[in-house]
Design a protein that fits this description.
Blueprint: E1 3-7, E2 10-13, E3 18-25, E4 30-39, E5 46-51, E6 57-59, E7 67-72, E8 77-82, E9 91-100, E10 107-111, E11 115-120
Parallel strand pairs: 2-11
Antiparallel strand pairs: 1-3, 3-8, 4-5, 4-9, 5-6, 7-8, 9-10, 9-11
């Protein structure tokens, strides 16, 4: 019932920008937190940015001042604007959504398929 579709990844030069989008579709679930995680080769998946239903945000220290997370509740979409990209930002970026079932009231975590972001120097 919950499907996350990511887009916006790609190859960019250092200092460039990308905007990732993650849309939640085919769901009547109530969307709570939405966020972005990334995983580089040989490293654990880490939180990049997260935004609550009340638009409270959290960022990894490594991306503060460069990345901006936002959400459009009407479109059930979360965005990650990435500016001043660095080679160390290279990773697979995953959208994550916390959603509550309207029938069971249970909360689940859903993951997008991942989108590759490669920053060249």
């Amino acid at each position: 019932q919950v499907q996350l579709v990511e887009s916006g990844g790609g190859l960019v030069q250092a200092g460039g920008s990308l905007r990732l989008s993650c849309a939640v579709s085919k769901s009547t679930f109530s969307i709570n937190h939405m966020g972005w995680y990334r995983q580089a080769p040989g490293k654990q998946r880490e939180l990049v940015a997260r935004i609550s239903s009340g638009d409270n945000t959290n960022y990894a220290d490594s991306v503060k001042g460069r990345f901006t997370i936002s959400r459009d509740n009407a479109k059930n979409t979360v965005y990650l604007q990435m500016n001043s990209l660095k080679p160390e930002d290279t990773a697979v970026y995953y959208c994550n959504v916390q959603a509550t079932s309207p029938t069971s009231a249970r909360t689940f975590l859903y993951w997008g398929q991942g989108t590759q972001v490669t920053v060249s120097s």
